[in-house]
Design brief:
This protein folds into 2 domains: 177 residues, Aspartate Aminotransferase, domain 1 (Alpha-Beta Complex); 251 residues, Aspartate Aminotransferase, domain 2, CATH 3.40.640. The chain is globular, with a radius of gyration of 21 Å. It has 16 helices and 16 strands. Helices cover 40% and strands 14% of the residues. With 458 residues, it is of the alpha/beta class.
């Protein structure tokens, strides 16, 4: 088998700024040891997120020039609507400026005090929007999905037995909908099988509970189904995607991931009443229903990106490039979530920095050291992002896993960039005894990881 190469040619480049270790130590201190507070130009390899960081194609940039900026009834909207409907089959397609706007609209309507929203695993903004409405966000990952070292094909699946028990204990009338995140971001970017999507819908139908997909990485999930699940090897990515959505009643989507754009999203569904209520909020908060907070050029770029992301050559390269990074780190003994997911490598911070307890944020310590040593920006997905205090006992409750996500932007970095990342991670791991405990000295009440200030402890 020949080397899997990038299925594109580079047409435009952006320079990278190089800094010294001493300069990065100053930058860390100035940013209160929070990578979200860095100036991006001070980052050498930016793996903070794959959201909105993609390199757009020549055809997408051409679409930017061709976008129809009409306030109402833009032809760019109708192209966008046609492409999304072809993929999802949903009746109502509602554009938003990004995924969290779709979540905000949805949970403003269906959420509220006394309600519960189950999910295989909520990611940060989804959880925040659920909880901001007053509802409770509940996670039901499979047992193997909580164990980084366990290798399984579909570790992102919903634990159906746990979900069934929760529905019967809570009461279906208190559960306005159930979410499935594909791929499961909080769980290491792990895919969800078609069988699990189908069986989740089958279970929910018994209780008349709608199923919504958090679909921002739908194409990557479809690729894993094609490669790993029996009966799908000869199906096209489009056919697999259409079947995935056929089991759902709606979805939220951040187009900043698998639509290969820098801004945009949508909310889609079949329910007429919910769509009417959603559009009412959209008009107040985002814009007219045929632009929803986006320029016509954004709608054109999204439509083009949603077509390009179905290309199997692209997906083969995309998944393989992440897998390559995972294989190199595993060979060096670095603990990661295995097997590698679709969009990122997740370092197992609990085993990477065994001497740091969860309440002293081992993942944040690793993130800071990766930047100090090599100028790489990652993000903690552990007790900083999801840790909390018991409201009654005030005791610290850690999430099941302590992770550091190295998210790979689409069509941005080459193999030599990834090889550099391997070298830096190996260096930090070899000297992991130097990793320090951290404490939070200032935090926001919601999504604290974005703006929190930290202090290293000696």
């Amino acid at each position: 088998m020949h080397t899997i190469i990038e299925p594109f040619k580079i047409k435009s480049v952006e320079p990278i700024k190089f800094t010294t270790v001493q300069e990065r130590e100053t930058i860390l201190k100035r940013a209160w040891y929070n990578p979200f507070l860095f100036s991006a130009e001070d980052v050498l390899i930016d793996l903070l997120t794959d959201s909105g960081t993609s390199a757009m194609s020549a055809k997408q940039w051409a679409g930017v020039m061709d976008g129809d900026e009409s306030y109402a009834g833009s032809r760019s909207f109708f192209r966008f609507e046609r492409v999304v409907r072809k993929l999802t089959g949903f009746k109502h397609i509602i554009p938003t400026h990004q995924g969290r706007a779709a979540e905000k609209i949805l949970f403003s309507i269906v959420g509220g005090k006394g309600k519960s929203i189950p999910n295989n695993s909520h990611f940060d903004t989804t959880r925040a929007n659920v909880e901001y409405s007053g509802a409770e966000a509940m996670d039901f990952p499979t047992p193997e999905g909580k164990k980084p070292e366990v290798i399984a094909d579909f570790k992102g699946n919903m634990d159906l037995n746990a979900l069934k028990a929760f529905i019967e204990t809570t009461g279906p009338e208190k559960i306005p909908l159930c979410m499935l995140t594909i791929t499961n971001n909080s769980g290491g970017g792990q895919p969800v099988s078609m069988a699990n999507i189908r069986d989740t819908k089958k279970l929910l139908k018994k209780y008349n509970i709608p199923l919504f997909l958090d679909a921002c990485r739908f194409a990557e999930n479809a690729f894993f189904i094609k490669k790993r699940e029996k009966g799908f090897a000869k199906k096209s990515i489009l056919e697999i995607v259409q079947e995935m959505f056929s089991y759902a009643d709606g979805c939220t989507m951040s187009a900043k991931k698998d639509a290969l754009v820098n801004m945009g999203g949508f909310l889609a569904m079949n329910n007429d009443r919910l769509a009417t209520l959603s559009r009412n909020i959209l008009i107040v908060t985002e814009g007219f229903p045929t632009y929803g907070g986006l320029a016509g050029r954004d709608l054109e770029a999204i439509a083009q990106g949603l077509e390009e992301v179905l290309d199997e050559h692209y997906l083969t390269y995309r998944i393989r490039s992440v897998e390559y990074l995972g294989e190199k780190l595993t060979a060096a003994g670095v603990p990661i979530v295995r097997p590698p997911g679709g969009h990122a490598i997740y370092l197992d911070a609990k085993n990477f920095a065994k001497h740091i307890p969860p309440q002293r944020y081992p993942g944040q310590s690793i993130v800071c050291e990766l930047y100090r040593v090599g100028g790489i920006r990652g993000v903690e997905i552990g007790s900083v992002m999801f840790g909390r205090k018991d409201p009654k006992t005030k005791e610290f409750i850690a999430p099941p896993m302590e992770l550091v996500r190295l998210a790979i932007p689409r069509r941005v970095y080459t193999q030599s960039h990834i090889d550099y990342v391997v070298e830096v991670v190996k260096d930090v791991y070899a000297h992991r005894d130097r990793l320090k405990d951290y404490e939070i000295i200032e935090e926001a009440p919601v999504l604290r990881h974005f703006t929190a200030k930290f202090k290293p402890l000696s």
